[in-house]
Amino acid sequence: MYIVTTATPYIYVPITAPVADPTTLTAELALVQQDITDLTAANWVTAAWRAPAPGAAKELAVLRDTGTWPDGEYMCYARLHSPPELLVLPAGRVRIGDTRG
To answer: Of 28, 47, 48, 64, which sees the most CB atoms within 10 A?
Structure first.
């Protein structure tokens, strides 16, 4: 995914979970620079569930980025709270701004 530096778009993340209705789970997203491997509590932002299109197999979690992000390559992670488990899933790469150098 590519995002212009000045944009504040929603980031849609497809989620498939081994439960009948994943929207019953609390979801969070983290967007961190690509080289960060240890996520902290400060990285996670509460996400909202988006209703899927009729017949869609996946739900989408939504995070609105209202912060300022420098140009760079980022990784997005989803975290689902399904007590007693806490699932952390890599959701994909996000490029912000022109990183071609």
So the answer is: 47
* Omega cis (within 30) before 9: no
Closest of 49, 76, 43 to residue 62, by C-alpha:
49
Secondary structure (3-state) at 47: coil
Q: Do 80 and 25 contact (CB within 8 A), yes or no?
A: yes
What CATH code is carried by the domain that includes residue 58? 2.60.40
Q: Is the pLDDT of residue 101 over 80?
A: no
The model's pLDDT over 9-57, given as tens digits with 9 standing for 90+, comes to: 667 777 766 667 777 888 888 888 888 888 999 888 888 777 665 544 4
Strand locations in the chain (E)? 2-3, 10-15, 26-33, 44-46, 48-50, 59-64, 72-82, 85-96
**Structural domain count of the chain:** 1
What pTM, to 2 d.p., does this model score? 0.75
Q: Specify if 101 maps to a domain.
A: no
